[in-house]
Design a protein that fits this description.
By secondary structure, this protein is mostly beta strands. The chain folds into 3 domains: 14-116, no CATH class; 119-251, Lipocalin (Beta Barrel), CATH 2.40.128; 257-352, Beta Barrel (Thrombin, subunit H). It is built from 2 helices and 33 strands.
Length: 352
């Protein structure tokens, strides 16, 4: 696997990717940011939120409450909803007023239902929503079908008096809803009853509890192909089989690949991308600043590509570096990573 530097786009505030489309906003003043499509200004100033939905860019602006669309085929811009700020979640379009949350299933804004709940996962006839105190399954008439109190997850000796909270809803598999918590726990609930069917923890304070103990859980990802869960922590890789309700694969990737990823002192922001995870890294000889990126094949257990994005000389001169909130993304045959100075580095694969 080989990539070459294709382009560096300067002054990028934030960006989004979909297929061959790159959208980013840029500008010196936050409320005057302009929107770019594949590095071309599309004539939109003052953009706030934006995202690609099918063949449109949907966006909101700082100076009003309307939502707009930009047709990727024609370049036409029009108002799609007056006095409503559209957002996107799990392929649904959502906006809120003082009483309801409106959920649209498509871009024509006709197939809609309203609810008092903001659903994190939507199925055909129910949704999953959560607060600081409960995770709930509700239908679209706002009836709670089952509910789970987060207080029953228990606390941790490291933060006395605090209760656990949901960090991320991962997905639904084999009749169970899986989520990851702030205290490093992985929990599966029965979708029909809301009862716990599995509790896994990498938190040492759970050693003498009802949790099944495992290596420390890190960034957890739901793998759509087989509906299993992948966990990547500091140097531990794990697969949790959601049908068997068990950890079925587990290894330290430093030990598996000592001359590859084992040359890194720390890795950050792992991102599951197919059979690989990408990461930002600090080499053993570095001094605490992130300058490297890499791709690890977790099936072959081997580092397949790495690159020094920022040299020691450039870092010493500019103090530029990579930061964990900006992971390395794969999209098609390209890689994207943004540094702390707002430069978006784009790489293109050569060995296809």
């Amino acid at each position: 696997m080989k990539y070459r530097t294709r382009n560096i786009v300067k002054g990028v505030s934030a960006y989004q990717l979909k297929e061959n489309w790159l959208i980013h906003d840029s500008g010196k003043e936050l409320r005057k940011h302009e929107l770019y499509l594949n590095n071309k200004n599309i004539g939109v100033e003052g953009v706030s939120d934006y995202f690609i939905n099918k063949s449109f860019i949907l966006f909101n602006k700082w100076d009003g409450n309307d939502s707009f669309s930009y047709d990727l085929k024609t370049g036409k811009i029009e108002v799609i909803i007056h006095n409503a700020q559209i957002v996107s979640i799990n392929k649904y379009l959502i906006y809120e007023d003082t009483n309801n949350v409106f959920h649209y299933r498509n871009n024509n804004f006709v197939d809609v239902f309203s609810s008092k709940y903001f659903f994190n996962i939507l199925e055909d006839n129910y949704g999953i929503t959560y607060t600081k105190t409960h995770l709930s399954k509700a239908n679209f008439q706002d009836e709670i079908l089952c509910q789970f109190p987060l207080s029953s997850l228990g606390g941790t000796e490291y933060e006395p008096g605090k209760t656990d909270k949901i960090d991320k809803i991962l997905g639904i598999a084999h009749g169970n809803i899986w989520f990851y918590t702030d205290f490093g726990r992985l929990v599966a609930l029965d979708l029909e009853t809301g009862n716990v069917v599995k509790k896994i923890s990498g938190n040492p304070s759970d050693k003498n509890s009802t949790y099944e103990m495992t290596l420390g859980l890190g960034d957890c990802f739901f793998r759509p192909l087989d509906k299993n869960i992948v966990s990547v922590s500091g140097f531990d890789f794990q697969i949790i089989d959601t049908e068997q309700l068990a950890v079925t694969e587990q290894y330290d990737f430093r030990e598996a690949d000592p001359m590859g990823i084992g040359t890194y002192r720390s890795i950050y922001s792992p991102m599951l991308q197919g059979d690989y995870f990408t990461f930002l890294g600090i080499k053993e000889e570095d001094f605490g600043y992130i300058r490297w990126i890499g791709i690890f094949d977790y099936k072959a257990r081997k580092l397949v590509w790495e690159y020094e994005v920022i040299s020691e000389e450039v870092f010493d001169e500019t103090r530029n570096q990579l930061v964990p909130p900006q992971p390395l993304y794969m999209s098609g045959n390209k890689l994207y990573v943004k540094d702390i100075k707002g430069n978006l580095h784009i790489f293109e694969r050569e060995d296809i």
